[in-house]
Amino acid sequence: MGASGSKARGLWPFASAAGGGGPESAVAEQALVRPRGRVVPPFVFTRRGSMFYDEDGDLAHEFYEETIVTKNGQKRAKLRRVHKNLIPQGIVKLDPPRIHVDFPVILYEV
């Protein structure tokens, strides 16, 4: 209890690979990225886009359409949110790359 799923043994890419004592384990403990099977870079180069394309090819977070409502003989315009026929943006390249959220580094400015 209390352990996050991403930090479980063998799943967290930056977890310590050193199990015993000794000088090599002290050096490995101070290293930023420890080689462990596959090398995981500390940067994120792409992300999933949060916007959508509509039928006209417009790109936005949300789409609304104007509808006319008649109430008590008065015409009134209302905006209704569109949920259908929207295509997700997909993968977006980040420029510049970002540091991975699980990378254990404290950033400071001198």
TrEMBL record:
Pfam families the UniProt entry points to: TUSC2
Upper taxonomic classification of the species?
Eukaryota, Metazoa, Chordata, Craniata, Vertebrata
Kindly list the GO CC terms recorded for this protein: mitochondrion
Which BP terms from GO are recorded?
Answer: cell maturation; inflammatory response; natural killer cell differentiation; negative regulation of interleukin-17 production; neutrophil-mediated killing of gram-negative bacterium; phagocytosis; positive regulation of interleukin-10 production; regulation of mitochondrial membrane potential
Q: What domain of life does the UniProt record list for this protein's source?
A: Eukaryota
Q: Which organism is it from?
A: Vulpes vulpes
Instruction: List the residue ranges forming a coiled coil, or say none.
Output: none
Name the UniProt record assigns to this protein: Tumor suppressor candidate 2
Q: Where is this region: Disordered?
A: 1-23
Q: Give the matching InterPro entries.
A: FUS1 (IPR029393)
What PANTHER family does the record tag this protein with? TUMOR SUPPRESSOR CANDIDATE 2
